[in-house]
Fold this sequence. Notes:
This protein has helices spanning 15-25, 43-47, 55-64, 91-101, 105-110, 127-133, 147-150, 156-159, 175-182, 196-199, 208-229; strands at 2-8, 31-35, 76-77, 83-85, 117-124, 138-143, 163-168, 186-190. By secondary structure, it is an alpha/beta fold. The chain has a single domain (2-229), classed as P-loop containing nucleotide triphosphate hydrolases (Rossmann fold, 3-Layer(aba) Sandwich).
Amino acid sequence: xxVIGVASMKNSPGxxxxxxxxxxxxxxxxxxxxxxxxxxxxxxxxxxxxxxxxIASLATELRRERDPxxxxxxxxxxxxxxxxxxxxxxxxxxxxxxxxxTTTLPEVLRKSLGGTTLVADLGRLAGPSAxxxxxxxxxxxxxxxxxxxxxxxxxxxxxVPHAEIILTGPGTYPPGExxxxxxVKVRAHIAHDPAAQWFIQGRHGRTRFVRAVRRVAAGLAKTxxxxxxA
Length: 230
Ligand SMILES: Nc1ncnc2c1ncn2[C@@H]1O[C@H](COP(=O)(O)OP(=O)(O)OP(=O)(O)O)[C@@H](O)[C@H]1O
Ligand SMILES: [Mg+2]
């Protein structure tokens, strides 16, 4: 199993939209999308999910039982078929659940989950979400290629050695300059695409956004498989 975290440092660059699209376009499709955003979840509101099932109920069960299969007791299925573990919408409840998971989830993630890939929306890479990021295989940090976003990524290479950057939307800094300045690999640049806003509403057409995320998913899946086989 591999665990991919997606996060921002600031300025809402599209983490939830990208992370959900990454899970949905992952080759083979055996993925669980988990909202570990301590400021509150998005999916519960969009898809009218059962509020009693999600990371809060997961945190409660993991206090008693550290079996990886426990994750699957707390998933719900989105209309398009994606399995998700949603965060509470309320920030206080979401923060409490993500904080509780910092003491239990890393141990579970270290154990095998067969071929399932977990894609986590970490929200801002701070506090409990940053703690959880430390136990993941790869952390994709999203930022617009402009100084007001990139300055918040200073020190990322040291703080999160397994981080990679996803640039998104317009800006003046090309990937090469970002790599030179921050010493962190740039995995991709996802262009601004107004169609991206439809994705989280469950409309998964063959948009430029979906094609771009699918390419990232294919590349990451290959790397992960190679590392798993090594
Ligand atoms: N590639 C894109 N092109 C254009 N708009 C996008 C793109 N990705 C996301 N958006 C839009 O940007 C807004 C923020 O997206 P999203 O909620 O995914 O960001 P976030 O980083 O998770 O924000 P938050 O900090 O609130 O968690 C939404 O309106 C979404 O539709
Ligand atoms: Mg978000």
